[in-house]
Design goal:
The chain is built from one helix and seven strands; from the N terminus they run H-E-E-E-E-E-E-E. With 116 residues, the chain is of the alpha+beta class. Strand 2 and strand 3 form a beta hairpin.
């Protein structure tokens, strides 16, 4: 009887683990949605995202081709700018909605107009 109970307990535990793994890998459970941006920025490869902690409606992203994009509506829409042609921007940070910094191999760049 003990072997039988042990086997059932093991199968029960394995079944629960199997269901948990399947449930955790289900793409329908993920809440990620692609953010659409207008050309030419839609083909960008982005390396950093920053939202103002004091006002999370304001956010910026930066990446390859010197692209910097800004949102003022929490990511619903994005406007872009090219800071440095044929360059890469790896990091972006803003201290106010107007004043921010981005950097990459070509240097550090400052914006006083919100990055756009």
């Amino acid at each position: 009887m003990t072997k039988y109970c042990t086997r059932i307990s093991s199968l029960y535990i394995l079944s629960i683990l199997f269901l948990l793994v399947l449930g955790g890998l289900n793409p329908a459970s993920a809440q990620w949605k692609k953010v659409n941006v207008s050309p030419p920025f839609d083909n960008g490869y982005y390396l950093d995202v920053f939202f103002l902690p004091a006002n999370p409606l304001y956010g910026w992203i930066c990446g390859f081709n010197g692209y910097v994009l800004r949102t003022t509506d929490g990511g619903v829409s994005w406007q872009g700018n090219i800071v440095v042609r044929d360059g890469m921007l790896e990091s972006i940070n803003f201290v106010t909605p107007s004043i921010g910094f981005t950097s990459g191999p070509n240097g550090i760049f400052k914006s006083t107009d919100g990055g756009i």
